[in-house]
Every structure is written in C-alpha cells, then in structure tokens.
Amino acid sequence: MTTTEEVEPISDAADVVQMTDLSTDGNQFLTFTLQDEEFGIEILRVQEIKGLSRITPIPNMPFHIRGVMNLRGTVVPIIDLRAKFAMPEVDYNQFTVIIVVTIGDKVIGLVVDAVSDVLNVAEENIESAPDLGGQADTTFMTGIAKSGDRLITLLNMDDLIGAETVSI
C-alpha cells in the first residue's frame, strides 16, 4: 500500500490537479470532473474505475440511465452524471470513464468526464452544503471540500442515486 502522497493520478488529462492539503486524519475522496466542475465521492464507495465500454441501452429508462453493462458476469446499471445534473451533453472521449460504486447492496456505474485524483481532506476543510434557498435542492451534497484554491462538491451517493437504484 502506498501513502497518499505517492498516489498517481488515474487520468492522463493535462489539467490533472495536484494533490494539496493532504492529511492523514481526513476523509478520502475520489475526485472527478463534469463540465470543468470538480466532484468527490467517498473512496470507500468506489469499487473500480473502468474505461468506457459497451453500454446496452434499455428502453423506457430515464434519459440519464444509459443502460447496463456486463461487469464480469454482473449486470450493472450505468448512470451518466452529466445527464443526471442536466449539464449539456458532450461526446464521450478518451478521458471518459465509468466509476463503479456500491450503493447499499447495489453496484452502479457512473459515467464522468474524467477522474482527477484521490484527495485526503481534513475534517476542518469540509464545509456543510450551502443553503441556497428553497429553490435549490442540495440534498445530493454532503458538503464542499476546500483544497487550496479548489472547491470540490462532495456527493451524497445515497441521496443522489440510492432511491433510484431501488427501482432499477
């Protein structure tokens, strides 16, 4: 096992962000980008990161559920987080990956633009999800991580995807 300072970026993207504010007493998050915005999910939820592979569409699914893929014999639903967040659609490219996560007892694939790095964030560098008034739903956020000049939206996978997976 390597220390967090030795973790190599998973993506070859030129703009891979350097790991900053490393600590050993914080929480670890896998960070990724969607439309130049950074998001983070708890590293313990991540089962693996796969390159984009064949996704079999399923009729009558919501737009953000792209279909299913065969992951070593297990049929895994694939959710496009760009579509889930109503961001503009883009063509998948060489940096597009599927982050395979576990939510409860389900395995779900998340299509993201690119994976950035694994980041340790000390508890004092995590702010609560901002209160943006009644019009904005922030229940999918666990908070905002501060890392140098970066602000990373931390996702609550149970609230973002959890209820949906019950019906898939």
TrEMBL record:
Residue ranges of every copy of the CheW-like domain listed in the record:
26-166
Keywords for this entry? Cytoplasm
UniProt cross-references to Pfam families, sorted A to Z:
CheW
User: Where does the record place it?
Assistant: Cytoplasm
Broad class of the protein's primary localization = cytoplasm
Protein's name in the database: Chemotaxis protein CheW
Organism listed in the record: Roseiconus lacunae
Q: What is the lineage of its organism?
A: Bacteria, Pseudomonadati, Planctomycetota, Planctomycetia, Pirellulales
